[in-house]
Design the sequence.
């Protein structure tokens, strides 16, 4: 009798628990629904379309005239010198910007990670270019880089260095963009390094100075090793950011002179919207995506293995 | 090295670096308040960074040539709508992924994390194709709707809500509060920081929107401020003072927002760094 009753109660409890679970499921689905629907339509769907479009030839403004052409876009791509040039420029920018910018950021973080009265002023100075939009910065630096009457050439003149063409020269254009980009974004990585530095326990420093370690030994044997994970993170996001280079060359050089600043993102944009080769541009997009995935996975693997 | 010499060295190094970092922006602001001829006359000395012959003429002239106020309101409008709707949509999604039980939750979470890697540049063509098929080109929808849901924001919210104690939520449920009511009246008031962080990260991001607006806004009507200054820059005759005035004007709103929410912005960057 007793057992039967409690079995019944158990059943009722189970049923009400089940109902509650179902209700929670319904609520859960309705909570994620807006995001999931938007992400499906504006991220997953275009993502799948990019692969699909890569096998077609069409003009974005006449999508009704779409033609399936198999692998032709990819065949064309691997014979296209401009593609190789853009790929090279993108990688060149990345390979220089990532270590330089991270090193500058680390140096700034080390400089401000002390009890200085003006510490916040310094931090805001380093950080102000980060908040300023890239369009503003690109236009500002076109003026600074002006070969005849720019601020930078005037400063060089002060040190009796001859005028430089900067963005007008195929040797200097990419390096000018690199310099500006490092200046713009170093403050961002500095903040991440700073958070990492503040996570290192003060006791380690005290213990090591009792043992007679000097500041440089502390930097070499305590600070740098403790920042390993933070550094990996900084390098990864900076790399992914760097391969997307677009606004700077679009505004400052339009890919020139002599295609020395044409990047993959710029090429996608120009093929798709200026030359109206949406299919070809999509094929480049696919390669671009694969490069981003490859970089992030190989960086993860490289750093995990060490 | 004693502490005092170390501090002196650090201060000198910091001052030099700060000057290097701030000079371009300082020159921009100072030049925007100078007569055109003065800008070039001062270029070769430190006077370039001093506000001599202070004037508002550049602003008046530039605003006369292009509708800067209109561009400003366009940007303020669509960026604000995008970010506020983003807060609503992404926060409830992040909450469900953190605190509600349903089938497929782990899958959705994994998908959100995986999708963070898709660069916008790689879906540019199809995105335009979809927006064009919806007849959204040259409408606010094109600038807003595709960017409301954001994987990174969902993830930030989810991480924050994970730390909300379950006991609070359970006792609210026992008191008969519906999950939506619990979320709005109990969870949201506890979560000011994460809302501020997501808001400012998203806002600064979209304030700089450039590539997408070039494609989907063909006329003047919806042109955002970034496109506005870029067109102005290519519009002859080129006067540096006027250009610097438009650049400064574009930067002011975002600097104000940054100074107001600075703490949360920095938290956003650093928490992503530590948790990522």
Sequence:
């Amino acid at each position: 009798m007793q057992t039967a009753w409690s079995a019944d109660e158990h059943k009722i409890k189970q049923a009400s628990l089940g109902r509650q679970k179902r209700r929670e499921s319904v609520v859960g689905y309705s909570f994620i629904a807006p995001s999931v629907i938007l992400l499906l339509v504006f991220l997953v769907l275009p993502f799948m379309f990019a692969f699909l479009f890569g096998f077609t030839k069409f003009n974005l403004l006449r999508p009704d005239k779409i033609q399936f052409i198999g692998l032709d876009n990819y065949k064309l791509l691997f014979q296209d010198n401009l593609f190789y040039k853009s790929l090279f420029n993108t990688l060149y920018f990345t390979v220089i910007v990532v270590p330089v910018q991270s090193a500058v950021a680390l140096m700034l973080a080390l400089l401000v990670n002390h009890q200085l009265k003006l510490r916040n002023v310094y931090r805001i100075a380093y950080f102000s270019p980060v908040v300023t939009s890239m369009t503003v910065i690109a236009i500002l630096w076109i003026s600074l880089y002006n070969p005849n009457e720019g601020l930078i050439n005037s400063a060089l003149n002060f040190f009796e260095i001859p005028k430089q063409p900067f963005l007008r020269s195929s040797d200097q254009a990419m390096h000018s963009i690199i310099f500006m980009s490092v200046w713009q974004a170093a403050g961002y990585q500095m903040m991440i390094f700073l958070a990492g530095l503040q996570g290192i326990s003060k006791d380690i420093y005290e213990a090591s100075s009792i043992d007679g370690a000097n500041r440089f030994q502390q930097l070499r044997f305590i600070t740098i090793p403790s920042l390993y994970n933070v550094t990996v993170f900084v390098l990864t996001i900076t790399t992914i950011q760097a391969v997307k280079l677009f606004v700077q060359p679009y505004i400052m050089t339009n890919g020139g002179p002599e295609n020395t600043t044409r990047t993959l993102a710029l090429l996608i944009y120009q093929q798709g919207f200026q030359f109206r080769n949406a299919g070809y541009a999509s094929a480049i997009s696919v390669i671009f995506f694969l490069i981003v995935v490859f970089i992030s996975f190989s960086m993860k693997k490289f750093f995990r293995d060490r | 090295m004693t502490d005092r010499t170390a501090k002196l060295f650090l201060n000198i190094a910091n001052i030099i670096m700060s000057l290097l970092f701030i000079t371009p922006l300082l020159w921009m602001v100072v030049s925007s308040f100078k007569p055109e001829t003065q800008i070039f006359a001062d270029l070769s000395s430190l006077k370039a960074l001093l506000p001599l012959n202070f004037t508002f003429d550049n602003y008046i002239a530039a605003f006369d040539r292009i509708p800067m106020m209109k561009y400003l309101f366009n940007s303020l409008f669509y960026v604000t709508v995008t970010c506020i709707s983003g807060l609503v949509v992404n926060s409830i999604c992040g909450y469900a992924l953190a605190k509600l039980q349903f089938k497929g939750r782990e899958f959705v979470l994994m998908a959100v994390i995986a999708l963070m890697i898709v660069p916008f540049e790689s879906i540019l063509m199809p995105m335009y194709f979809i927006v064009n098929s919806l007849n959204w080109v040259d409408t606010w929808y094109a600038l807003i709707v595709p960017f409301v849901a954001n994987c990174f924001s969902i993830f930030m919210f989810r991480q924050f809500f994970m730390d909300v104690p379950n006991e609070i939520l359970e006792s609210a449920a026992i008191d008969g509060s519906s999950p939506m009511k619990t979320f709005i009246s109990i969870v949201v008031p506890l979560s000011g920081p994460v809302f501020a962080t997501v808001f400012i990260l998203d806002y600064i991001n979209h304030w700089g929107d450039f590539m997408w607006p070039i494609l989907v806004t063909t006329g003047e009507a919806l042109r955002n401020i970034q496109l506005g200054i870029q067109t102005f820059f290519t519009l002859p005759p080129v006067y540096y003072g006027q250009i610097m005035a438009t650049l400064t004007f574009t930067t002011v709103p975002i600097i104000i927002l940054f100074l107001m929410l600075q703490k949360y912005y920095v938290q956003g960057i650093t928490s992503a760094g530590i948790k990522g």
In short: Chain B has two domains: 3-55, 62-275. Residues 127 and 146 of chain B are 9 Å apart (CA to CA). DSSP finds 14 helices and no strands in chain B.
